[in-house]
Specification:
Number of helices: 10
CATH architecture: Alpha-Beta Barrel
Radius of gyration: 17 Å
Function: Catalyzes a reversible aldol reaction between acetaldehyde and D-glyceraldehyde 3-phosphate to generate 2-deoxy-D-ribose 5-phosphate.
Distance between the termini: 21 Å
GO molecular function: deoxyribose-phosphate aldolase activity
CATH superfamily: Aldolase class I
Keywords: Cytoplasm, Lyase, Schiff base
Strand content: 15-25%
Family: Belongs to the DeoC/FbaB aldolase family. DeoC type 1 subfamily.
CATH class: Alpha Beta
EC number: 4.1.2.4
Order of helices and strands: HEHEEHEHHEHEHEHEHH
Amino acid sequence: MTTPEPLRIESAAALATLIDHTLLKPEATPADVNVLIAEALELGVFSVCVSPSLLPVEIPAGSGLRVATVCGFPSGTHAASIKAGEAALSVQNGADEVDMVIDLGEVKAGRFDRVEQGIRAVRDAVPAPALVKVIIESAALTDAEIVAACHAAESAGADFVKTSTGFHPAGGATVHAVQLMADTVGGRLGVKASGGIRSLAQALEMVSAGATRLGLSSSASILTEWDTPSVRTESGPIGY
């Protein structure tokens, strides 16, 4: 098992290129999404991530800003065919990436064949170049379950594994989970850390642990912290 060296992040602009600037509050409006997109363009982030009901969105031509969405969110207990249909509709409505939630009950029951089937249904519904990220809700799983869920995601053809929805009472991303996920997928899949990351120090720790994408709703405040040298000193430079 080979884990790639963590990414080197030497500027706020470099960190921004890893960020899915996220707005998944149930009460979000189209006006809120417009604000999100304006912020994303100013910050230079990789993408915006919004609920499927808010698609399509208007992205300025040539900006390079990508659009991500979610499916089976946040519980993951939807039928695989429903998740697949939701994902396909989202891509028709302009989504470049779909973050799907697995069924945690299937994981807890050890039915990883069904977990894989559920992921594959979404993968088949949104073929490349659309990306599929698999939310495993790592805080609710044991280490063995995290590893098995990552293997199921890889076997089903996913592009990323992702820690959390940010809505589960068990919590969000942890350094331990990100490192375990990165070790398991060995660079063959991306690793997205999401859920509860609200400071630059936390974001840098996740990248040091192996995250290649960050789901953040506090992107602006986190990137602004880059101008505070003590924050970077405490967390250490990335990739050294």
